[in-house]
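pasting for ref
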Amino acid sequence: MRYILPIALFACLAALIAISPHIEPRRLRRRAARVTGQLRAEHGFRDGSRASWSETRSTGWPPFHYGKHRELDNLLLGTVYDLPVRVAGYEVVFNGSWHRYGLAVIVLPSPAEWLEVRGQRPFTSARVPEHVPDGQLALGVPEFDAAWSVYAESPEAQRAAAGSAALAQAMLDAPTPFSWRVHDGEVLLWRRDGWSDAAQLLACIGCVANLLGLADTYPVG
């Protein structure tokens, strides 16, 4: 009998180790499914397509710059500020570890200069490669510069972003840290582990849209 308890404890520990890598992915997938349901039921989003993400993913820029077994799910298409918006979940495997992101794309009325703002590392693991582009700027707002990174390529974009109190304040007021990038006619937003709910996602979209002047030009109907 004295061996039964240690064996049982060992079996429980082994089972916990075996299932633990699957607990967090399942939790985040369930949360993503709830966000998808909220966007459909409360905000008029409908089915999207993988093909519409081909060009966005082909850049190889974050969060598409690493990993294997890359998959999109929960693809939706809707309208925010009278602009087309695509939403999706994105999963990738790196060194045997599973990573998930929430994605959203705002389709702009016209192309814009490349600008990238990051509020998170690609993932919590230090082993995940960090893609650092040229043109990093400091905005001169200590609270912002300590937590966020800004990159701009063209002189025009650098002048617009450098020292921008509006950019710093908009990101500090955001409901959660996230990252976004303007490229040609799109703005891509991404957040590690995905969005907590539809309200958080739409607030982040609104944050960027207001900053870029889209919310005033395209009020919510």
